[in-house]
Amino acid sequence: MIESQWNARFVATILGVIFVAVGLLGFIPNPLVSDVGYFQVNAAHNFVHLITGALLLLSPYFGLPVLMIRTLAVAYTAIAVLGFIVPDVASLDGAIAMNHADHWLHAALAIVLLFIGFMKPMEHSVTTAHM
């Protein structure tokens, strides 16, 4: 039980740091993540990354790292599917800058989050978290 909870906390913390770093990086002109970068982002997209990162970082303090990871897994799956099928809906009618590279990254992230969020040890920690 303790090891599974630690794994969920660790994963949420690592993902949270990555999301915050990417969110901050998006505000700095660079060739990878910016308004003209390989992954096109704007301020709204950067704030989504910062908020997501903050929620991930806070989730262990509220005993919700598994729920947060699973919620993001489902959300990114929907964003990825919509990004390929109806890009305007996925980007909230252009309010959040996205390009084709973003759609592929969201798909890869969805797969990773689905795997992490629904693998057995983490699932066990949900049912025994407060026993």
Structural topology:
Elements: H1 2-25, E1 33-34, E2 39-40, H2 43-58, H3 65-85, H4 87-90, H5 100-118, H6 120-127
Parallel strand pairs: 1-2
Helix pairs in contact: 1-2, 1-3, 1-6, 2-3, 3-5
Mind explaining what this structure looks like?
The protein has helices spanning 2-25, 43-58, 65-85, 87-90, 100-118, 120-127, and strands at residues 33-34, 39-40. With 131 residues, the chain is mainly α. The protein has one domain. A two-stranded parallel ribbon has the order 1-2. The longest helix is centred in the first third of the chain and has 24 residues, at 2-25. The N and C termini lie close together (9 Å). Residues 123-129 have low confidence and may be disordered.
Question: Which whole number gives the mean pLDDT?
Answer: 87
Beta-strand content: under 5%
Distance between the first and last residues' Cα:
9 Å
Question: Largest sheet at a glance?
Answer: 2 strands, parallel
Number of domains: 1
How many distinct beta strands?
2
Low-confidence runs: 123-129
Gross morphology: globular
- DSSP helical segment count: 6
The whole-angstrom Rg is: 15 Å
One letter per element, helices H and strands E, the order comes to HEEHHHHH
What fraction, in percent, of the residue positions are helical? over 70%
What class do helices, strands and sheet pairing give? mainly alpha
As an assembly, this protein is: single chain
The spatial strand order of the largest sheet comes to 1-2
